[in-house]
Task: inverse folding
């Protein structure tokens, strides 16, 4: 009798846990001091800057290599077709635009965050940061930008996800 009662109790507890797990509610916000949230924002701001600098440097290096090869009379690798060049240019523009959006939304978050005593009031700005980061996540996942870009994006994505969790906003996927 007592064994049946324990099994019934365990079954009910397991069902309650399963139902709660299946509700799909977004993660609740973490309670933390404003200074700690400010550090998370700074981490994202720095990650955006590092990612942007890397991409600019990468573009400059590619342009310099092509110019050097042409100036020395060497032939660069077999040239890309116009279609390939257009596709590459479109991908670069999409990434630049998305990164610009993320930079603006991060700056907006910083301005609003600094001006308020109740940091949770900036949840809407954090949602915008996550949405802008999601665009970059899709572009980086589809393109081949190399291991350094992947590493820098992984660090930035982790920072965005940490910030999202602090506010109870659904984080980015991988």
Result:
């Amino acid at each position: 009798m007592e064994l049946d009662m324990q099994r019934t109790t365990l079954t009910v507890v397991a069902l309650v846990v399963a139902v709660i797990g299946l509700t799909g509610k977004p993660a609740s916000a973490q309670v933390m001091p404003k200074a700690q949230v400010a550090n998370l924002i700074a981490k994202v701001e720095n990650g955006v800057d590092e990612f942007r600098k890397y991409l600019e440097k990468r573009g400059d290096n590619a342009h310099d290599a092509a110019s050097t090869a042409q100036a020395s009379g060497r032939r660069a690798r077999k040239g890309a077709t116009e279609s390939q060049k257009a596709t590459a240019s479109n991908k670069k523009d999409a990434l630049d635009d998305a990164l610009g959006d993320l930079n603006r939304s991060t700056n907006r978050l910083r301005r609003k965050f600094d001006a308020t005593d109740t940091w949770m009031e900036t949840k809407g700005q954090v949602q915008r940061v996550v949405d802008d980061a999601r665009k970059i996540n899709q572009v980086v996942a589809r393109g081949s930008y190399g291991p350094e870009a992947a590493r820098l994006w992984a660090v930035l994505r982790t920072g965005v996800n940490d910030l999202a969790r602090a506010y109870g906003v659904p984080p980015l996927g991988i």
Remarks:
- Residues 109 and 125 are 5 Å apart (CA to CA).
- The chain has five helices and no strands.
- Residues 34-71 form the longest helix (38 residues).
